[in-house]
Amino acid sequence: MNPIAEFKGEFAAISAALLWAVSSVVYSYLGQQISPMLLNLSKGVVAIALLLLTLFLRDFLLPALDSTAFIPALSHPFNTLNEFALPLFLLFLSGAIGISFGDTVFFAALNQLGARRTLLIQTLAPPLTALLAILFLREQLTLIAWGGMIITIIGVAWTIAERVSETDTPSAPLLPGVSLGLLAALAQAVGAVLSRAALAQTAINPLWSTLIRLLAGVSLLFLWILWKQGRRVLSGLGSKRLVAIVLVTSFFSTYLGIWLQQISLKFSPAGIAQTLSATSPVFVLPIAIALGEFVSIRAILGAVLSLFGIALLFLWR
């Protein structure tokens, strides 16, 4: 069997992580020019437009939902919903929790804790995803898969802890920031599990699931921004150069990145998909070296450890 077809979900997750690693370098620049909320909203709107164009060109104007049964643990609470409405509801909820709420509290945690501590807390998202998938989706992972997840997460955490200096951590009380970081990790995990629930036992295309999640997240984010800041928030995109950078980066990070993430959640267990998608800090290392940044031996060893864990995740089947 073709290994790419057999491990379609795993390769999609790795590809998403690679795209997010490259995009993170650009976003570090954009974050100094545009407010995080406006950046999040802008890239979401661009991705939605690209997804609608793709669906039109591929003649996927309506999502295909020809499943015969949903995951048993989730079917009873929603037994009044028909087969068409249930996956759409789960995906909308996934976008609202994972994108709108999750990104908002993630940005708030960044302001409270700084990049290093916030990213370290985010390494809790993959094991939380795996546990929620066991509880609600009845997914079971092998010992090799658990070992690969743990090793990968340790390697990513080690890499993050080494690469980002303590000096960028604000001197603020830890408890509020840690609480926000934990909420962000939990929201990410819940969003992934809801997507997996909608995708795993239906024929819905990942393109459609990506669009529905983004529509939910962006619409709620837009309403929140209008309520809090009004129209003046849109003034941050006055430069044509910034608009061009946002357009290009949104194509790769949001349009392709979230599409690949949804493919990974459709074809591989939620915990494994989330773990592989969280390996972006490892892929940032060669980019940092290419840009002339100093990367320590310890950070490289953390990346190597992560790669060993990733290799194990391709042996779980």
Question: Can you summarize this structure?
Answer:
75% of the residues lie in helices and 0% in strands. The chain has one domain.
Blueprint of the fold:
Layout lengths: L2 H4 L1 H23 L5 H22 L14 H4 L9 H29 L1 H8 L2 H13 L5 H21 L10 H27 L5 H24 L10 H28 L2 H8 L2 H11 L6 H17 L4
Helix pairs in contact: 2-11, 2-12, 2-13, 3-10, 3-11, 5-6, 5-9, 5-10, 6-8, 6-9, 7-9, 7-12, 8-12, 8-14, 9-11, 10-11, 11-12, 13-14
Describe the structure.
About 5% of the residues have low confidence. The relative contact order is 0.22. This protein is an all-alpha fold. It has one domain. The protein is built from 14 helices and no strands.
Give the total of domains.
Answer: 1
In total, the number of strands is: 0
Largest sheet: none
Q: Whole-number radius of gyration? A: 19 Å
CA distance, first residue to last residue: 13 Å
Our estimate of the beta-strand percent is under 5%
Helical proportion, percent range:
over 70%
Mean pLDDT: 82
- Secondary-structure element sequence? HHHHHHHHHHHHHH
Low-confidence stretches: 66-81
Give the overall shape, derived from the CA principal axes.
globular
Structural class: mainly alpha
Distinct helical segment count: 14
Keywords: Membrane, Transmembrane, Transmembrane helix
Pfam families: EamA
Transmembrane segments: 12-30, 37-57, 84-107, 143-161, 173-195, 207-227, 239-260, 272-292, 299-316
Organism: Phormidium pseudopriestleyi FRX01
